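re: the backbone from monday

yeah here it is again, tokenized this time
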């Protein structure tokens, strides 16, 4: 090892005058180097896939600009021409006097994050583009956290300790984690230096801690979410150049530094506040979770009814429904809460669309049911179709009476035949799945768990040869290739459905355990270990029953045990609000339930007041339940102010 051999770090003078003159810079990796989004990413790069009808990369760019980043280097590998073309046509290139200067770096030979950073370092020795400390993020990051103060903290720490070369951003999980792995981290509680970093494949797993760490005070956390936002000094690039076994950013680089006693480089941590949002979309599960967070406005101001990237905003209406101004909906169609309808989309008679995102230019026929799904642009869905918890890409046609079972992914321009049932968790593409990595224009490269290509993933899909155009009897040819394993399921490659994936399994198991305890009249202190046996750390509120008050009173101890964080309590309030919106019988109960939840210490004053503040800026139609609780919230505010005066 020997970062001292390399000149890049030496090019940055560390006196305060130079630091104050440095531009705030960032490197954005526009290639995830994974196969999690196949077969979609065989045709389009992941950063250009829409999330709530806006390309992922636009969320990242808008955030970086608002956070004060002045110069951004976008590293492109797979589908690089598509990314560059998109950027050149977007407002990031075309608007006059931009606050954010966007440059692209292209490498067709990189197969990992390590390769990408080594290539950037090689370019750096010739061009010196990276002037000093920089932010390292992926183009699938959605965040609204501030960066300027964090960068300054990193620089101040580096002045005092030249070995402090990296700061990693974390957030405490207030809800079930976005990813499928559980993270264990150990930090120095005073300095916030990272001492241990370990991912376990399942929640509730064990981890190993070096016994030398036990000689001092160590804070061990199992409820932290890695935001994959890093503040780096230039030495980070040179370390990748010196160590070719650094391929994976966390598994290799971070853990490599933590066990290296020779160079002595240090990594520090920064925990963002609960009011900030930061998450990566690294698999289909997190695609679903982040989409819901955007719709529920956790990512404000990056929400559908605000123009933040040149994409036309849609109007927010009652029940949290976003609808484009020119969308056409039959008066007999029912569009439910937390749904987005894009521009130029038409919805026929008797349709039922709930908790879904519908893209631009879609044509949805009569008596169609769409639930928990993501329908992209220019999709045609004929009469009588049923689609649940699926992703349907651009240009797809679903013929009359067809059914997409949960977890289905239809890639671009697939046609599903009349009355055909696509089996659960099938992934359908017009392209034959590759078995070799012969071009970065064909696939995203390396599996995140190994740094090498996942050659078996092509077998785990329901495939269509390129010459076949349809699924089912309407097709000109019947060339469907079904793998021997039959129906398919992947722990990390599916949409988060209530009945089939592990999160749904968890909810079902906990609900069964809970209701069983109610029926058996068990004591509350017995139920907590039973629920913990299902390897869950944080639980959301259960369904609201007609006897909600009685159940809450009996089980307030259990609910309080799992709802300690303010964000979790806000989510409970929003869940009750959503259920009341969808039920005429429950709607009048909301104004009574909220004070009751407060009285029983299920939700606290801070959570209620923050919920009220968030709702205050919404349209009148979205403040129905806030208005119902106006007198109660006013009383809480006055009581809070009196306490402050007394103190």
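seq for it, each position gets an aa:
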């Amino acid at each position: 090892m020997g970062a001292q051999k390399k000149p890049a770090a030496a090019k940055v003078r560390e006196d305060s005058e130079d630091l104050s003159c440095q531009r705030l810079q960032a490197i954005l990796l526009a290639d995830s180097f994974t196969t999690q989004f196949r077969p979609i990413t065989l045709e389009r790069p992941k950063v250009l896939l829409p999330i709530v009808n806006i390309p992922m990369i636009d969320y990242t760019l808008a955030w970086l600009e608002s956070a004060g980043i002045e110069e951004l280097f976008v590293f492109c590998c797979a589908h690089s021409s598509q990314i560059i073309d998109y950027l050149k046509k977007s407002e990031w290139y075309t608007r006059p006097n931009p606050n954010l200067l966007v440059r692209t770096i292209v490498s067709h030979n990189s197969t990992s994050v390590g390769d990408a950073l080594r290539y950037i370092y090689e370019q750096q020795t010739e061009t010196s583009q990276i002037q000093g400390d920089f932010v390292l993020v992926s183009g699938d990051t959605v965040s609204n956290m501030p960066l300027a103060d964090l960068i300054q903290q990193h620089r101040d720490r580096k002045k005092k300790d030249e070995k402090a070369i990296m700061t990693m951003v974390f957030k405490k999980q207030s809800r079930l984690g976005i990813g499928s792995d559980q993270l264990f981290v150990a930090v120095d509680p005073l300095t916030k230096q990272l001492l241990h970093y370990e991912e376990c494949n399942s929640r509730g797993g064990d981890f190993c801690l070096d016994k030398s760490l036990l000689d001092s005070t160590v804070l061990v956390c199992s409820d932290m979410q890695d935001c994959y936002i890093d503040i780096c000094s230039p030495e980070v690039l040179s370390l990748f150049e010196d160590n070719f076994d650094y391929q994976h950013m966390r598994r290799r680089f971070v853990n490599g530094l933590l066990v290296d006693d020779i160079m002595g480089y240090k990594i520090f941590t920064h925990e963002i506040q609960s009011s900030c949002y930061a998450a990566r979309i690294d698999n289909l599960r997190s695609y679903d979770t982040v989409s819901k967070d955007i719709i529920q406005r956790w990512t404000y101001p990056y929400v559908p009814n605000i123009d933040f990237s040149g994409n036309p905003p849609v109007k927010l209406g009652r029940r949290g429904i976003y609808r484009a101004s020119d969308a056409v909906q039959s008066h007999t169609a029912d569009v439910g809460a937390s749904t987005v309808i894009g521009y130029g989309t038409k919805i026929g008679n008797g349709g039922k669309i709930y908790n879904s995102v519908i893209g631009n230019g879609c044509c949805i026929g009569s008596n169609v049911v769409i639930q928990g799904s993501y329908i992209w642009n220019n999709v045609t869905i004929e009469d009588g179709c049923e689609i649940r918890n699926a992703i349907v890409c651009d240009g797809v046609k679903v013929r009359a009476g067809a059914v997409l079972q949960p977890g289905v992914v239809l890639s671009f321009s697939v046609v599903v035949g009349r009355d055909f049932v696509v089996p659960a968790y099938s992934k359908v593409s017009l392209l034959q799945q590759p078995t070799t990595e012969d071009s970065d224009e064909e696939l995203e490269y390396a599996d995140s768990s190994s740094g090498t290509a996942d050659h078996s993933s092509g077998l785990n899909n329901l495939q269509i040869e390129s010459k076949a155009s349809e699924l089912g009897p309407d097709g000109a040819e019947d060339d469907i290739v079904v793998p021997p394993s039959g129906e398919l399921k992947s722990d990390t490659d599916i949409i988060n459905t209530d009945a089939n994936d592990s999160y749904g399994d968890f909810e079902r198991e906990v609900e069964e355990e809970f209701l069983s305890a109610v029926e058996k009249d068990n004591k509350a202190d017995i139920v907590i270990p039973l629920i913990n046996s299902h390897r869950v750390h944080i639980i959301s509120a259960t369904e609201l029953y007609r006897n909600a008050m009685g159940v809450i009173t009996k089980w307030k101890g259990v609910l309080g045990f799992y709802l300690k964080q303010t964000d979790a309590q806000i989510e409970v309030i929003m869940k009750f609000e959503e259920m009341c919106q969808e039920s005429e019988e429950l709607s009048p109960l909301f104004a009574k339930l909220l004070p009751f939840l407060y009285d029983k210490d299920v939700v606290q004053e801070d959570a209620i007041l923050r919920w009220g503040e968030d709702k205050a800026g919404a349209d009148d139609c979205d403040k129905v339940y806030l208005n119902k609780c106006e007198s109660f919230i006013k009383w809480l505010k006055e009581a809070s102010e009196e306490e402050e005066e007394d103190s």
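The mean pLDDT is 76. The two ends are 57 Å apart (CA to CA).
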